[in-house]
Amino acid sequence: MRKSLGGFYTGASSSASRASSSFFDDDSLQFLSDQKYYYSAIYEFSQGEAPKLIWEYGSVNGMSEMGSFMQFLINTPAPKSNDNNNNIDFTFGVTSIVSTFEGAHFLAIYFQVLDSQARGFTRHLVFVIANQSRDLLNFCYSKYLKTFTKLLYGLYEYSERNFKVEIKEYAESLQKTITMSQNQTLSDKLLELTKILLIFNIDITNLDSEKGQIKTSDYFNIVNNELRPVEVVIDLSYVFLSEIIMLIESLPKTETKFAIISQIDIFEENPTIDFGGYNNKYSELVLNIMNSNYDEEIPSETQNNSILYDDSNSINSNGMNSKNKHGYYQYFNYSLKELVSRHVFNYCLFSILSGRTLVIRSNQTSKALSLVKKISILSPFFKPEFILQKDTVDPSECLKYAFVITKNILDSDKKNLSILDLISMVYSGDGCPQKSFVACELCREQVVNHIESEKVFLLHLYSTLNRISIRFLIKLSEYSKIGKILTKDKMLTSLKEFGFSPDDEPIFRYCIHCYFNKQHTRPILMNNISRGGLTLITI
């Protein structure tokens, strides 16, 4: 009895092997992608007053009493105040702490901004970011504290520019008022203010008294507790908010992503063969695959949204199993495993690795694009601009692309293309020799049949492909060390000496041309086909 696993068919297996393979399905990997979101805010606090919310973004489970949380924050010592003018400090300094409140972990960064109307000419703010996970929050503290601090410095810098203008006008008014009133108390205040002016390189002897306005003594002596909104002082502009929100959204939201970023930093130096355009940054590749939701992109055959095609590739309205002109039931769920189950994946992969353009003809272009994004990870020296999506294409314009998604192909010479036609359900293009590493190593049934997860299957393919390419480069290096001078052609004809099948010559020929390619376009190798020649099969 044969069993369908989302389009991938395997033979009947024992309960033991079935239990073993369950570790590799997407459901068992769900815990790796459980996301924990961030809450972020800026509060203002001052002596004798309740803290004020200035800005907030997001939410986090476990924090419900935000008023209590704000009060908890201001009980932490803030940056030193300027009330004592014997110890004046108007520079940007931060105090940062990591703590816990109601089961949520948070990072708080205390800082000050300048305001000519405030007591001591400073106002105190705290930036906070919180998350359920202690590991994620600690990672945020260790890796991004400087980045957050730099963004907050932008708020201080804006307040400083305005402060210099306003404090100069304040000093001019004070000086003019003293001249008119001869008030000794105000004279003492001007003496203290002079120290502050010198910090900002403002010379009191060069003040323009025409700008100063005569004020009452109370204007300078009575503390103003009705301050203007701090948003006016720091200018929470679109630029600042977009930058800080972008940073928050880029933070790891899963324990898996945190572990990879914090512990893995793999980057291989040249010479290497780059697959998928990741420049051998394996950690980045894993993150992208783990964060992709292939379950949403691929319809399941076990659900009502299964794709059931008629001859025009539209969904059959009567809900019955219809057959195409070749007599086959036409279910296709746009997954790599589906390509394997239909015995066409080897051909597609060999074509991609040898530099042939893979054209996918389908009316479901968004799903075809999802399939291309996955399989492009296996494309040598891939760039996003190597994908063309167009309703109707001419075969000649396809050659400069690695992948083409279309609904119609004009009738002309298609011999240099590999076409996966999901409308007529036919593959026509390069074949895949049985002795090629694509068949023998990448897609061995003993391994593939136990991998139900699309993500794990893709990682398996990439890792195996990378290992094979490294083995090839090591062999080249060994030959160089013993003094064998090999031209490109000699190198390819020596594949058997390297331990590779001559059947893989088209693949290594394309990889070598890509490696030495100095252009921004991909190499086009005409007639770089497999020894098996062109293949035509029904899907």
UniProtKB/TrEMBL annotation:
Which branch of life, at top level? Eukaryota
Ranges where the record places region Disordered: 1-21
* InterPro entries registered for this protein in UniProt: Folliculin/SMCR8_longin
Alphabetized Pfam families for the sequence: Folliculin (PF11704)
* Gene Ontology MF terms: GTPase activator activity
Give start and end of each Folliculin/SMCR8 longin domain. 105-198
Q: Where is the composition biased (Low complexity)?
A: 12-21
**Name the UniProt record assigns to this protein:** Folliculin/SMCR8 longin domain-containing protein
